[in-house]
Amino acid sequence: MKNNLPEILPIRIYGDRVLRHIAEPVAEITPELQEFIADLVHTMYETDGVGLAATQVGRSLRIIAVDAFWFKENGKKDTVVLINPEFIEFDGSSELEEGCLSLPDIYEKVPRAEWVKIRGLNEIGEQVEYEGGGLFARALQHEYDHLDGVLFIDKTSKLKKMMLKKKLNDLQSTTDENGVNIGKQKHHYHGEL
Ligand code: NI
C-alpha cells in the first residue's frame, strides 16, 4: 500500500527490454505521475546517481531527473526534473568517461556536446528551460538518450563493444522470461547516470 513516502524503485539492468523502448510522451501530469516522479528522484539519490530516466525504473515515459553535483557539494540537492524534454541548442564537444546505473561496473569515454540548452515541463506542469555545460550537459544528454532506447555503450567504438561483450552477456543473463532484468546483486554505485 502507498503511504506517500517516496520509494526506491528497482533499477532495470542491461538486457531489460524497457531500456530499448522509445518512451512515450507524457500526456497528463496526474497525482499518480507526481508520486512516480518523487519515487524516481528518491531512487536517483538513494543509488548515488546523478541522473535517472523513467525507463531505467521500468516506466516507458519521457521523464528524466538530473542532479549533477549533489554529492560533490556535501549533499546539497538541486534536482532538475524534465517531462517531455527537448534540446533547443548544442554547442562544442567533449569526451569523458561515463557510467550508467543500468550498466553496473562499465565505464567508457563518450563523445557529447559540451554545452546544451533544454526545455520541458517540471513536475507541476510549468514550462522550464535549463542551460549549462560540463557534467550537467553530459547528464542531460545521457538521460535523454535513455528515452530513445539508447545506452552510452552504443556510442563507443566497435572495438570497445567487443571488449565489453563478456560483461554485457553477464549482465544480460539475469533477464527473466518477461524481459525484465533487475540484476542479481546489489551494486555499489557512485555518480552514475
Ligand atoms: Ni544511464
Instruction: Give the full name of the CATH homologous superfamily.
Output: Peptide deformylase
How large is the share of residues in beta strands?
25-35%
- Strand arrangement within the widest β-sheet reads 1-2-3-6-7
Contiguous low-pLDDT stretches (5 residues minimum) are none
Our count of helices gives: 3
What's the quaternary structure here?
Answer: single chain
- The CATH class turns out to be Alpha Beta
**Span between termini:** 29 Å
- Give the distinct bound molecules: nickel (II) ion
What order do the helices and strands come in, and which of them pair?
Blueprint: H1 31-46, E1 51-53, E2 63-66, E3 80-91, E4 94-100, E5 103-112, E6 115-121, E7 127-133, H2 134-147, H3 158-172
Antiparallel strand pairs: 1-2, 2-3, 3-6, 4-5, 6-7
Bound molecules: nickel (II) ion (NI).
Nickel (II) ion is lined by residues 100-102, 142, 146, 193.
Brief digest:
By secondary structure, the protein is an alpha+beta fold. The protein is 23% helix and 26% strand.
